[in-house]
Amino acid sequence: MTLPEHAARRAWHAAINPLHATIYFSPDLSAEFAALGVADRTTAALASRAAAMGAVGAGTVTATFYNYRHDFVARHLPAVWDTLTPAQAVAARLRAADRTLRRLLGDEAVASPAMAEAADLAMRATEGCSRHARTLYAAHADLPVPDEAHLRLWHATTLLREHRGDGHLAALLQAGLDPLEALVSHTATGRGMTPKWVKAIRGWEQSDLDGAAARLRERGLLDADGELTAEGRAVRARLEDATDRLDAGPYEHLGAAGLARLAELGGGFVAQAVAAGAFPADAFGKA
C-alpha cells in the first residue's frame, strides 16, 4: 500500500527522532559516564553515539556526524577510549536511556501495552532498513536488541534515526551544503537547532556561522535578515524529498496502517516527554 505523502517524514519528526533524542539532553547520560570517569558532558555525548563503531578517532566521527567542527571533536576523541571501552560506553548509554525514559514517562507508561505495541511496530519498521553506505545505522544495527519494551522502542528509534541520518548526509552532499551551511539553513527554517546550541554542542564559533550565512547569501539561498529566500526554501524542500526517497524502505515495509499507529503511540510518548522537560526551551527555533 502506498504511504500518504510525507507520512513517514511527519512520523519521524514527531514520534521517532524526538524519542531517541531525549538522550542527548539528559542528565542521566552525563551521570552514567561520570561514574565511569568521563566527567565532561561533551565527551560523554560524542562517545555514547560513536561507541557502536568501536574505538574510533575524530576523523571517523567528523565524517559520520557531519556537522561537528573537527578540531572540537579531536579534543575528546580518541582520548576517551583511554578511560573506558566502547562496550562500556554502549552499556552506559542504554542505562541512561532506561533512566531517562522512566523519569520522563513514568513506570506506568514504560510497562504499558501501548509501549510494547509501539516497540513492536518500530522494530518491524527497522526490518526494512539497509546497511550499505549507512555507517552509523549499520554499527548500531549490530548491537543486541534490548528485552524491555521501552528500551526496544528506544533502540528501534535509534536505528531509524541513524538510517535516515545516513541518507540525509548523501542528500546534503548532493545539494552542495557543507556542514555549516546545512546547520544555518536548517535553523533558518525554524525547525533546526538554535545558534546557541549549535555552538555549544557542535563546537562552532559565531564567525563560522556568519561565514556560512554569507555563503548562503551569495548563492541566493538566504536574505539579508537571515531568512530563507524562495530558492533557499526550494533547496531545503528538495533536500527533504531526497532524504525521504533514501529512507523509504522502513516505512514501506511497515505499511500505512502500521506507520499511522506508530505515529499515534510514539507521538503520545513524545508529547509526554516534552511536557516533562525533555528538551531545553531554547534548543530549537531561530533564537
TrEMBL record:
Pfam families: HTH_67. InterPro entries: HTH_67 (IPR054058). It comes from the Bacteria. This is SalK.
